[in-house]
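#help-structures
NK: newbie question, is this the right format to request a structure? protein is Nucleoside diphosphate kinase
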Amino acid sequence: MAIQRTFSILKPDATERNITGAINALIEKAGLRIVAQKRIHMTRGQAETFYAVHKERPFFGELVDFMISGPVVVQVLEGENAIAKYRDVMGATDPSKAADGTIRKAHAKSIGENSVHGSDAPETAAIEIAQFFAGNEIVG
Ligand code: ADP
Ligand code: MG
C-alpha cells in the first residue's frame, strides 16, 4: 500500500476543551505522521467552501456556524493508506456509533461537535490540503 497524505481538522470543540494534544497522540499512535499543522480561525467563506458538498443538507448552517465558533487546527497527515487509516482512527460520524479506541468515541460531544474531520478519498484529500496549505508548508 502506498504512502498517502490526508487532510485533518481538529474542530472547535477540541480546541475549546484543550484536547488537541490528546488527539494528536491518538493520530501518532496509529502510525500517522503530522507533516503540516497550523491553528487558524476559519472565516465563514472558508467554512462554506470547505463543506460546499453538504450545502443542501439540513445541518449545513449549523455546521458552518460551529466550524467558525472558535479556532481549529488544520493538519496534513502522512502514512501508509493514510486516508482510510485516519477514517478508522476517527471513528463513525455519530460518536454513539463509534468503535472503542477511536478519537470520536473517546472525545466527540455529538454528531455535529465530533472533534475531527478527515478526507474521504484521494481526490478530496488533494483539494482540501490545497485549500489550507502551500506546498512548502508541508514537510514530510
Ligand atoms: P464525516 O465528518 O464523518 O465525514 P459527513 O461528511 O457526513 O461526516 O458530515 C460532515 C460533518 O457534518 C460531520 O463531521 C458533522 O460535524 C456534521 N454533521 C453530519 N451529520 C450531521 C447531523 N445529522 N447533524 C448535525 N451535524 C452533522
Ligand atoms: Mg465527510
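mod (FA): yep, format's fine, and the C-alpha cells are attached above. DSSP finds seven helices and four strands in the chain.
NK: thank you!
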